[in-house]
Design brief:
The complex is a heterodimer of chains A (111) and B (113). Chain A is mainly beta and 111 residues long. Chain A has no helices and 11 strands. Chain B has no helices and 11 strands. The radius of gyration of chain B is 13 Å and the shape is globular. Classes of the chains: A mainly beta (111), B mainly beta (113).
């Protein structure tokens, strides 16, 4: 079983819909990251959080440390939100800070 | 600031050939990482460095070597490329401390025939 599990793996929605992507992890962490990767593109950090909730524009990320769970929400989704969203957790392995990645969620927003 | 840059962006190699991928960052970051991304596998750590002159193995280090002679550069070498090394390679860097995000380069798409 992967240390970081995302669901769903694939998600297709219509423009304007509210989107939720979930991430569960099984290890102790210092922080959780949400990353975005457009097709054929690089990887951009959206959020880094260790507690509570963060908001940036139409994107909201929440984390529940006790339940080892995080969600990424997109309000009023738009076709340009189509991308792979990756959850990653920071943990210390052999004395160094490293990221452990989920498999990613492929989001497609149709106009 | 350019952030994290990678050279080259694309490369095709024949089995057995060697090459070096260059990662450069201009943010004075201590930590640098090399990942590979394969379909269905997610991102996997190849090697990393916690400072100039230091390197360490990650999750999938076999077939790769690295060097960090200068703080701003992190080189990934393939001495004898194999088709299994066909992948997209990402470099990343971050500053000290537990609560610093990683900044990723644009990626290098490598095909080994």
């Amino acid at each position: 079983k992967n240390e970081v599990e995302q669901s769903p793996q694939n998600l297709t929605a219509q423009e304007g819909e509210f989107i939720t992507i979930n991430c569960s992890y099984s290890v102790g962490i210092s922080a959780l990251h949400w990353l975005q990767q457009h097709p054929g593109g690089g990887i951009v950090s959206l959020f880094m959080l260790s507690s509570g909730k963060k908001k940036h524009g139409r994107l909201i990320a929440t984390i529940n440390i006790q339940e080892k769970h995080s969600s990424l929400h997109i309000t009023a989704s738009h076709p340009r939100d189509s991308a792979v969203y990756i959850c990653a957790v920071s943990k210390v392995i052999q004395g160094a800070q490293k990221l452990v990645f989920g498999q990613g969620t492929r989001l497609t927003i149709n106009p | 600031n350019a952030g994290v840059t990678q050279t080259p962006k694309f490369r095709v190699l024949k089995t057995g050939q060697s090459m070096t991928l260059l990662c450069a960052q201009d943010m004075n970051h201590e930590y640098m990482y090399w990942y590979r991304q394969d379909p269905g596998m997610g991102l996997r750590l190849i090697h990393y460095s916690v400072g100039e002159g230091t390197t360490a193995k990650g999750e999938v280090p076999d077939g790769y070597n690295v060097s960090r002679l200068k703080k701003q550069n992190f080189l990934l070498g393939l001495e004898s490329a194999a088709p299994s090394q066909t992948s997209v390679y990402f470099c990343a860097s971050r500053g000290r401390g537990y609560y610093n995000e990683q900044f990723f380069g644009p990626g290098t798409r490598l095909t080994v025939l």
